[in-house]
């Protein structure tokens, strides 16, 4: 398994290289965000470990650029920033996991292996449900030719439901497939995002593509 470590702190970077190598990982590292983005874009990795606070380009910008380039390599944020809003920002931009410093190599190793077990889902050219179109590769959504701006999390929820159009999924189903496995917050966050999506994909167009099935969950279906 090949891992890219993007970390500006020389001592920690050396520790990560040594520790992960001892655990059987093939480790490549970068000393700042800009070099890390180049390495992640030009190379092939099973997973990326990325710090947030770095010179030249911070971890958030590395992650944002990777996802905008349709690079879906699993990425774990390893950082001293442990606030809930910091974690929310990371997941919103497309992070797959988040681990705070100081950390345990046992936990880090387990989480990295968990990320590599998640097969990168194929990204179809476009998903269509009625007049609603979502393009996973280009990360765009439009309806009847009109562009719809979504956050990364809104996009992920909608993509999951559109991939399985006409099927009903519970809040737990959606959490397990869209949120990271480490998320232990209120499951009603799914309800919040469903409301955000309706305001963007349905309300302006007089449609009801995202439906609530009472007692069961949510589904996307053509009007």
Net shape: elongated
Describe the oligomeric state of these chains in a short phrase.
single chain
Number of strands: 11
Largest sheet: 5 strands, parallel
Mean pLDDT: 88
Beta-strand residue percentage: 15-25%
Beginning-to-end CA distance, first to last residue: 45 Å
The Cα radius of gyration reads 19 Å
Strand neighbour order, sheet with most strands: 2-1-3-4-5
Percent of residues in helices comes to 40-55%
Low-pLDDT stretches: none
Enumerate how many helices there are, as a single number: 8
Structural class: alpha/beta
Helix and strand pattern: EHEHEHEHEHEEEEHHHEE
Set out the fold topology.
Layout: E1 2-6, H1 10-22, E2 26-30, H2 33-42, E3 47-50, H3 59-68, E4 75-79, H4 84-93, E5 97-100, H5 105-117, E6 127-129, E7 132-135, E8 140-143, E9 146-148, H6 152-163, H7 171-178, H8 189-202, E10 210-213, E11 217-220
Parallel strand pairs: 1-2, 1-3, 3-4, 4-5
Antiparallel strand pairs: 6-7, 7-8, 8-9, 10-11
Keywords:
223 residues; alpha/beta; five-stranded parallel beta sheet; four-stranded antiparallel beta sheet; 8 helices; 20% strand
What does this 3D model show about the protein?
This protein is an alpha/beta fold and 223 residues long. The chain has 8 helices and 11 strands. The strands form 3 sheets. A 5-stranded parallel β-sheet has the order 2-1-3-4-5, sandwiched between helices. The chain has a 4-stranded antiparallel β-sheet with strand order 6-7-8-9, with helices on one face. A two-stranded antiparallel ribbon has the order 10-11. Helix 4 (84-93) links the parallel strand 4 and strand 5 (97-100).
